Please model this.
Amino acid sequence: MNFLDNKAQISVELILIFASVIIVVVIAINIYKTYLLDMDTEIRENELSSLISSLDEINNHIKN
Model:
C-alpha cells in the first residue's frame, strides 16, 4: 500500500510542477503581449509620423 501512495504523490507533484510551468508561461505571454501592444502604439504615434513628415519634406524639395 505504501508503494501506491508514493506513486500517487509523485503523480500529484508532477501535475503541480506542470501547472506551475503553464501558469508562468501564460503570465509571460500576457506581459509580452502588453509590451508588443505598447510598442505598436509608440511606433504609430512617433515613428510613423516622423517618417511621413520626412517623406513630405522630400516630396516638397522634389516639387520645387
In short: The longest helix spans residues 2-63. DSSP finds one helix and no strands in the chain. The helical segments are 2-63.
